[in-house]
Amino acid sequence: MAVYRANPRDLQKYGPRLEVEVGPPILRTAQGFISPGPSGGQRRFYRLPALIDTGAGRTVLTPEAISVVGLSKVDVTRLLRAGGISDNAGVYVAAMQFPRYKLATIEVIQVVSCELPEQPFQCLLGRDVLSRWLFTYNGPRTEWTIQEEDVASWVLPPEGIDT
């Protein structure tokens, strides 16, 4: 189990934050791993600040983060968010790593594009990621914990991604 301590003011103001690395999806074939993307098959990951958001059903990246990472758009969706509704929010396919934490890589995940104005993070980790963990928020102790057991990092690639 990993325990993360936070500055009490930061934890109260922003919530539990961590760094993630996002890159193109990691796909498995009989010949090994492939990673479609703008780098000619090379996997390039970019470090981003993220907020754990138990109210978000899906993981969200800002449009700027999606552009920097160079993710492929696979769909559009209706996104209900604080402040309104986005009828044509882009859905992108990615991989996610947690380099400063002992958590399994998520080789394939769909993320939704959404502005996060005036926030110190570029990613909201939603319940699609949290469903892999036991997450505990302990406000009085200004700490939060993540436990992870028996997690498979490989999942069936989303529709629209050819292996």
Helix fraction by DSSP (H/I, runs of at least 4) = 10-25%
In total, how many domains does the architecture comprise? Answer: 1
State the CATH topology.
Cathepsin D, subunit A, domain 1
Main pleated sheet: 6 strands, mixed, barrel
The overall pLDDT average reads: 83
Task: Give start-end ranges of low-pLDDT stretches.
Answer: none
**What amount of the residues lies in strands?**
35-45%
Examine the secondary-structure arrangement and name the CATH architecture.
Beta Barrel
Order of strands, main sheet, comes to 2-5-10-6-9-8
Number of strands: 12
Assembly classification: single chain
Head-to-tail CA distance between termini: 35 Å
Structural shape: globular
Structural class: mainly beta
> How do the SSEs run, as a string of H and E?
EHEEEEEHEEEEHEE
CATH level-four homologous superfamily name: Acid Proteases
